[in-house]
Amino acid sequence: MAKKFLLSASIFLFFLSFLSAAAAQESESHIHVLVNLVQLNVAVTDNKGNYITGLRPQDFVITEDKITEKIATFGEGNEPTRRLVDVPSADGKSSTQAMAQPDITDPPVSPGDSSTTLGAAVAGANVFILFDTSNYMYRGFVFAQDAISDFVRSLETANKVAFYSYSRDLSRAAPLTADRSQVLRGVRTTVAGDEAALYNCLLLTVKDAAKYTGRKVIVVFSNGPDNSSMVPPEDVAQLAQSTGTSIYMISTRQAQLEPVSTVVFERMTKATGGKAYFASNWRDEKKAFASIRDDLAHLYSLSYYPQPNPNHGWRAITVRLTGERTKKYHIRTRDGYLLEPGQFSPRNTSSSLTDSASGR
After folding, report:
1. CA 289 → CA 14, 138, 140, 226, distances in Å?
2. Which domain holds residue 318?
3. N or C: which end of the chain has fewer CB within 10 A?
C-alpha cells in the first residue's frame, strides 16, 4: 500500500513540475516588446562639408542591429514630412512612393497613443534652446542674448521653439510655442545668476523634449564648465539617443579651456547626431547659430517601425546611401538607442512586436 502511495505521489510531482515548466515557457513566449516609431535626423554632406540635397527615400538604407528597416516617413529640410506607401508597379514589383501630409499640430503624447504617432511625425521640428545664465556669463551676456534672438528670428515658421535658461536650476522661460515674440521676451528677461548645473538642467530639457513626437532638437549655449550637477553627462547623452533628440552645443572659449568639458561636449553632440561649436567671440557665436540654422534646414527626416528583434537593450542604428555616386558622401545621425525597461509588457498572446507609437 505504501509503495502504491509513493508511486502515485512521484507521478503527481512529475506532472506538476512538467506543467510548471510548460507554463513558464508559455509565459516567456508571450512577451510583447512595445517598440516606438524611431525618428532619425540625418545630415548628408560631401568631402567639403557642403549639404547634399534632393535625395529620395530609396537612396537610404537603415539597419537596426543589422536588420534592414522599412522607412515609414521621409522629409528634407523644412518641407513637410511625408508618409511612404508601397505602390505596385507595371512589372509586378512594389515601389515606394511618398504621400503628402497636411499640416498637423504636435501636442505631447503618451506612449501607446497610436492615433497621433504618424501625424505628429510629419510636423515641423521642435527646437529647445538652453541658455547658460550662470555666474560665468557676466561678461558678454548681452551679446549672447543678441545671438540667440537672431537665431530665433531666423528659424522657419513651421518650427516651434522653447527657450530655457539655467544656472543651478532650470528656468522654463518660454515653453514650446510657435509664437516667436513669446520666446524673444523670454530671452530678454533672463539675468545672470548662480553656479552652473548644465547636465542636471540638460537632462530635464531632454525629458521635456521627449514628450513630443517628430523632430526634436536642443541647442545649448554654454559659457563655462559644469560645476554643480549630480547627473553624469553619459546619462544625458543616453536619454537623448533613446528619445531621438539631437543636441547642438555652442561653447565659448572659456569653456573650451576646460579639457573635460570640451571632450564631453564633442562626444555628446556626436552621439546624438548634433554638432559642437567653440566660439571665441560674439561674432563666432552668431556664426555658430547660423550654422545650426543651416543644418536644421538641410536635415533629412526619416522614421521607421523596428522589425522583430530579440535584443532588449542597446540597439545599433546604421544609415547608408545606395549607388556609386553617394560613396563619397558623409552621413551624420545618432548611432542607436537603448530600449527602455517600460517598453516590455506581458501579454496573453504569441510573441510579437507592437507599435506603441510614441516617436523615438
Report:
1. 71, 20, 16, 21
2. 42-87+95-104+300-355
3. N
